[in-house]
Amino acid sequence: MKRTALKKAVGLLVSTAMIVSLAGCGSKDSGSSSVDSAQESALAQAESESSAEEDADSQTETGSGEQITITLWSQFSDPNSTDGNYVAFYNALESIKTDMPNVNVVHEGTESESYKVKLRTAMAGNELPDVFFNWGAGTMAPYVEAGLVLSMDEYMTDEMKGKILGGTLDNFTFDGKVYGYPYSVAVASLYVNTELFEQNNVKIPETYDEFLTAVDAFKAAGITPISLGERDLWPGLMIFGIHAIRMAGAADFNAALNGEASYNTPELVEAAKLVQELAARGGFGDSAMGTSEDDAVAAFKQGRAAMMFMGSWLNGDCEADDAAVKGKISVIKFPVIEGGKGTADEFHGGSGETFLVSSNTEHPAEAAAVAQYICEKMSKDQYLAGSGMPAWEADMGDTSELNRLSQEIADLTKDATGYVYWLDSLTGGSAADTLMNEIANLIAGNETPEEFCANLQTLNE
Q1: CB neighbour burial string for 412-422, b if at least 16 within 10 angstroms, e if fewer
Q2: What's the rounded Cα separation, in Å, for the pair 248 and 344?
Q3: Which alpha helices (H) appear in 106-259, and where do they start and end?
Q4: N or C, where is the chain less crowded by C-beta within 10 Å?
Q5: What is the DSSP track for 417-443?
Q6: What's the pLDDT band for 384 if we cut at 50, 70, 90?
Q7: pLDDT at residue 249, rounded to an integer
Q8: Same structural domain for residues 217 and 312?
Q9: How many domains does the chain have?
Q10: β-strand pairing of 329-332 with 186-193
Q11: Do 430 and 388 fall within a single domain?
């Protein structure tokens, strides 16, 4: 595929699917060691792209030639990670030095869960940096409501608006005002190690029954069926999330998450039951509750697990030069569950991650320009690095070296009819903490599916 302008294809995906189902309004943390040659080639092309720089320059011309400092916090803690979002972020940090020479960006990266604590502490003390990463939707609502972040409306030019793809601003818009820019559309899929399936004569599942058959076969062979790092809590949200989408359907599950419907439904109770049964039959191995997400990714990357349900930021890890599974992974739609309301074309994910600007910044125009620059630059680069679909229109150059898993996901989602965004980001705050802890208890077998749904329903009362 040569010199691809993706506005039509991705705009159709986002505007028709996300606008329908993201009624409430995307990267999780992972680390690896090396950047593969395909990523390096793609990102070298990205360095020549000038549209983000031109937009940023129009916002930051001061005429003084004086350099100002912008403080920036993010969850991108590992500059050597092969996660495509990390690759794109550090690429943007490097190129901004040349493209915005009047701005000195001072970055602090903190691992995902620790970063959440750091943000809450800074918010309470009104000590936020000039620009900071946020997961959008419900996680950014408290900052908007408290007046701690600036609206981007006055900084958005018509040209800029024309490049942002339809539907991707939804999770950053409150009361008609836009507070953040998108940089990706990330989708969760079922990653399967085709070599392990072939070696163990197991069929790649097309139905939920076949999925359970695969789980049992790999467990019997002493191979972890599904790699899960539940010690970090958020991975369990994704496992429950896709089961809930398949059982209740995207629209009804979104309604419950947004407080417009009940969690106490037969479909969501059944989804919880299926997750608990999956854990009880050894679907996640023997130590998922004590395994970190980094270790779960490493196990999958090393070929020690047959499957993993994860967001598209996993693509870079799977295709990294140091990955034992390079060239052996495929992505498939999570199987439909018989009797459920959901379809195979409803997905977990969407557009939601962004960089917000503190209302206390001494340099609002420059801080807004930095946020815009990073998001637009990352949109292109994370796509070329194989992390997710872009949220901005851009000339992608030669995409013949594009991560093949990204191409597979683009094909999987081309007929998408609905999305449910990441549960912790969609709900935010204490509601997100409740969801994570309840799902952990469900997986550990510490409560019944009925108790689980009843406890979640307290969030809507």
Answers
A1: bbeebbbbbbb
A2: 12
A3: 112-124, 141-145, 158-163, 194-199, 208-220, 234-248, 250-257
A4: C
A5: -EEE--HHHHH-HHHHHHHHHHHHHHH
A6: confident
A7: 97
A8: yes
A9: 2
A10: antiparallel
A11: no
Q: And the tokens for 85?
A: 């979002």
Two structure tokens written together for 398:
């030669």
Closest CA to 84 of 11, 4, 184: 184
Tokens of 213: 């058959």
- Strand (E) or helix (H) holding 106: strand 103-109
Identity of the amino acid at 418: G
Best CA proximity match to 279, nearest among 453, 440, 454, 433: 440
The three-point CA angle 14-20-22 to 5° equals 80
Residues 323 and 390 in one domain: no
| Distance (Å, whole) CA 193 – CA 244 | 24
pTM: 0.76
Comparing 9-18, 227-236, 432-441, which segment has the lowest mean pLDDT?
Answer: 9-18
pLDDT for 223-267, tens place per residue? 999 999 999 999 999 999 999 999 999 999 999 999 999 999 999
Specify whether 256 is located in the same domain as 359.
no
Q: 128 lies in which domain range?
A: 26-185+351-396
**What CATH number corresponds to the domain at position 250?**
3.40.190.10
Averaged over 32-53, what is the pLDDT?
Answer: 43
Residues 121 and 226 in one domain: no
pLDDT bucket at 23, cuts 50 / 70 / 90 = very low
Query: Is position 19 within any domain?
Result: no
Same domain, 76 and 138: yes
Is residue 83 pLDDT above 90, yes or no? Answer: no
